[in-house]
Amino acid sequence: MISTMTDCIFCRIVRGEIPSQTVYQNEWVTAFHDIAPKAPVHILIVSNKHLSGPLGVEETDAPIIGEIALAANRIARQLGFAANGFRLVANEGHDGSQSVAHLHFHLLAGRRLGWPPG
Ligand code: 5GP
Ligand code: ZN
Q1: Pocket test for ligand 1, best of 100, 104, 108 (most atoms within 8 A of CB)
Q2: pLDDT tens, 6-23?
Q3: 3-state SS of 95-114?
Q4: Cα 7 to averaged position of ligand 2 atoms, centre (Å)
Q5: Catalytic site residue 104?
């Protein structure tokens, strides 16, 4: 399902109305480079369907989460950082410091990432 929210920035990227450096797209998800990278590799994997975030996922949306994991797997192998590892993380709401209310996972790689996050 392709998103229909007109004023959502990630919906507009999914529809190709706003340019992005897309690295992967299928029926369920779209992945593109983050505009303000926090690591040498910083890719956003977003649902093609508009969902507000992890809290907006309903039972019928569960396959989308699997597709996000598969996309991360494929991108990591394709871009050559699977062996070194990566982080796949989604922020939700105020305490999660979510800034865009459209479901997305950050795929971060290319350096040893600190834990726990700040
Ligand atoms: P959040 O803070 O919601 O977890 O993550 C939102 C991410 O979207 C941020 O890392 C931010 O840099 C990225 N972002 C915001 N607007 C755009 C945009 O127009 N294009 C791209 N490629 N990334 C964006
Ligand atoms: Zn959206």
Answers
A1: 100
A2: 899 999 999 999 999 999
A3: CCCCCCCCCEEEEEECCCCC
A4: 8
A5: yes
Secondary structure letter of residue 47 according to DSSP = E
Query: On the CB side of 78, how many CA atoms lie within 13 Å of its CA?
Result: 10
For 39-96, the pLDDT digits (tens) are 999 999 999 999 999 999 999 999 999 999 999 999 999 999 999 999 999 999 999 9
Mutate to test the pocket of ligand 1, among 10, 34, 47 (most ligand atoms within 8 A of CB): 34
The CATH superfamily holding the domain 9-109 is: HIT-like (3.30.428.10)
What is the domain partition of the chain in residue ranges? 9-109
30 lines ligand 1 (CB under 6 A): no
